[in-house]
């Protein structure tokens, strides 16, 4: 069991999660994608898609236990979930504690 927990809490999963986060941040900055209804509707699914795509790219560092296609798919889904969850958590903390405005809220005119 210690081997399994070390796989899912390794530096590789953090690296893949950061890459997913950065790719989505970049995609949100592109005006054509930002205004696309299809992109916004599929936004909750994109971390999982990018996680699956990242683990099947050649040269991506994966733990030794992750060798089969099924294991890679599960690892990619986990990485995507971790990236999406951490983004939501950080965003929630910044909105409640840091004074960050929620999307769609307009500043009060004085």
Structure in a nutshell:
The protein has six helices and no strands. It is an all-alpha fold and 110 residues long.
Distance between the termini: 59 Å
Mean pLDDT: 82
Number of helices, where a helix is a run of at least 4 consecutive DSSP H or I residues: 6
Helix content: 55-70%
Unreliable stretches? none
Largest sheet: none
Query: How large, in whole angstroms, is the Cα Rg?
Result: 17 Å
Strand content: under 5%
Helices and strands: which structural class? Answer: mainly alpha
Overall spatial form:
globular
Q: How does this structure look, described?
A:
There is one protein chain. Helices cover about 65% and strands about 0% of the residues. With about 110 residues, the chain is an all-alpha fold. Helix 5 crosses helix 6 (about 70-95). The longest helix has 28 residues, at about 70-95. The termini are far apart.
Helices, strands, pairings?
Blueprint (H helix, E strand, L loop, with lengths): L1 H7 L2 H19 L1 H5 L1 H5 L4 H10 L13 H28 L14
Helix pairs in contact: 2-5, 2-6, 5-6
Supply the key terms.
mainly alpha, 110 residues, 0% strand, 67% helix, single chain
């Amino acid at each position: 069991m210690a081997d399994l927990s070390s796989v899912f809490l390794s530096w590789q999963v953090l690296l893949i999660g950061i890459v997913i986060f950065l790719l989505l941040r970049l995609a949100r900055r592109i005006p054509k994608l930002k205004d696309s209804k299809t992109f916004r509707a599929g936004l909750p699914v994109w971390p999982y898609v990018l996680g699956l795509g990242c683990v099947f790219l050649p040269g991506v560092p994966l733990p030794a236990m992750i060798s089969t296609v099924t294991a890679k798919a599960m690892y990619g889904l986990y990485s995507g979930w971790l990236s999406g969850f951490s983004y939501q958590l950080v965003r929630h903390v910044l909105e409640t504690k840091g004074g960050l405005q929620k999307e769609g809220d307009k500043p009060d005119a004085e």
